[in-house]
Amino acid sequence: MKTVGFLTAYVPEELFHAAGLTPVFIFHTPEDDGHARAHLPGFTCWIARSALDRALAGKLDGLVGMALAQTCDTMQGVADIWRRNVSHIPLFHFGMPLRLDSPSARQYLLAELWSLRERIQALTGYPISDDALWKSIAVYNRTRALVRCLYARAPVLAPSDLYALVRAAFRTPKETYNEHMAQLLEQPMVLADLGSRGKSPRVLLAGSELADPVLCDAITRAGGRVVGDILDLGERYFAIDAATGAQREPTAPDQDPLKALANRLLALAPTPTKHHLRSDRAAHLLSLVQERSADGVIFARVKFCEPHGFDYAGMAHALAQAGVPYLLVELEQASQAGQLRTRVEAFIEMLA
Amino acid sequence: MARYYVQRQVLARFRPLAYVTSGAPVEILEAMGILTLYPENYGALCGARKASVDLCRIAESAGYPADLCSYARSHIGAVMHPRDAPLRGMPRPDLLVCCNNICGTVLKWYQALASLYDVPLFVIDVPFQHTTPAEDHVVAYVADQLHEFVAWLETHTGRRLKPDKLDAVLARSREAVALCRKSWRLDSTAHHRSTRPTCSSPWPQSSPCAAPVEQ
Fold first, then answer.
1. Cys-Cys link to B89, which of A80, B85, B142, B190 (CB 3.0-4.6 A)?
2. Which of B58, B70, B102, B111 to mutate to test the interface with A (most CBs of A within 10 A)?
């Protein structure tokens, strides 16, 4: 199996899959081998530094490539640093446009998808046919549908289990994931009894990447439930299938599959690194609070992440105005597990 | 600097005022008679006047994390509490123009300003070039956005862009760049003798806007 690593929430995984490669998200780990320090200052986010550090330590040598989409300044810099210092793992940079709301952005995106396909073909030595791409889109649409079913069960799942299963979607060959998740979802799921007294507070999560395992564990131990999220790699990532851009519509075989990929990327709820004239993340969060009857919101911000940092202020203000309790936890490389647990448990107890 | 900002404040009573990022295609606004001011410049002024620490604290109290760009935090603090800011803050804008060729932070800064001021924001996406020259589809993307930008300005200000006025402004810009490069070469330190200027040359050598390099 040939594996391609990726970072950011805008890499068109299906293109790599159609080339016979297996895309795997490179989640950060707590270990710091000290290699990234020579290339990135300490005030860059650990998501980026961890991936670079692991690559420089030789821990990612099994990858045949690494893909990054244009999102933030840090990832933009990592692309060049990687090319210069990890040259044995080819870097695929994908120019996802900043603006999601203009026809010119769509044209540019289509050209970037075409360019990426050419570069992947140059790596593998084989063409990526439209037929192969449609088949990969179908596989990924199936994954997305299964994860949506999983999120529908979120209120009866321990948060640590929910996110372990979502995270697995990024680390497992999709065919394998689809098979096992379909079987799992056929099993009855009952509310996990975690010994909590009375009501289980319902929280939404906001932030980058996927919820930190320590955070999920803290919410679980305190008896909380995660009823949804606006995480970059959370619900929004799986909400829309590649086809016509509309949710849960079947693949249209007479369309250009690159257009199907472009439509999906543009239709996704923007992450903080993107701009859409009609997007209001604070309003979206508030409506989700109402829709899911959430008792509160936990912002899990990776320290030094500017896009999420700026958005936090506006969203916190909106929640405060609406009287919705919220908590900000900042995640770093050196996990402050004890402090995190104490704060999260106190917050969940307050909501109960 | 104070005189400059006061002058802008007075002129803003008669002409539309846009906040722009440092790399924005300001010539278009100049040609349309739209005033421009730079929050980045104001952030530097706050630092020079030793007001940044207090202004940043104001932004941080409003929820902006302390590890965010301090230019942005200073300016946002000044917007929130203009009485505590140098020159009692910048004049209120009618429009916001954000171009990301300087950095990605400006998108978030200007989104925050759009919310604080409730004024229209136009974002120009200039994709970072990891290799040069820029590919045709990238140039086309930026050019298309500039056309959209002109239409947006005309809609929001009622002013029209006249090609001859734009040509005249572009000529002055090219002259300014050429004079800037000439002034760098006047510096007699060894560092500047041995290296080409690396700071803020807004146009690459191949650009039609770039002044001819004096050898």
1. B85
2. B111
Nearest beta carbon to residue B148 from set A102, A307, A314: A102
More confident residue, A301 or B193: A301
Average pLDDT of the segment spanning B50-59: 97
Residues of A in Cβ contact (< 8 Å) with B130: 79-80, 83, 93
3-class secondary structure, A214: helix
Indicate whether this complex's ipTM tops 0.90: yes
**What number is the average pLDDT over the span A289-304?**
95
pLDDT in tens, A136-189: 999 999 999 999 999 999 999 999 999 999 999 999 999 999 999 999 999 887
CATH, residue B79:
3.40.50
Strands (E), B41-177: 95-99, 121-124
What Å distances lie between residue A241 and A68, A141, A250, A299, B14, CA to CA? 21, 5, 8, 27, 50
A80 to B125: CB separation less than 8 angstroms, yes or no: no
Domains and CATH numbers, chain A: 2-131 (3.40.50.11890), 195-351 (3.40.50.11900)
Q: Does B144 touch chain A (CB under 8 A)?
A: yes
Question: B104: which 2 tokens?
Answer: 């990605």
- Tens digits of residue pLDDT in A224-259: 999 999 999 999 999 999 984 444 344 555 579 999
**B209 located within any domain:** no
d(CA B141, CA B147): 10
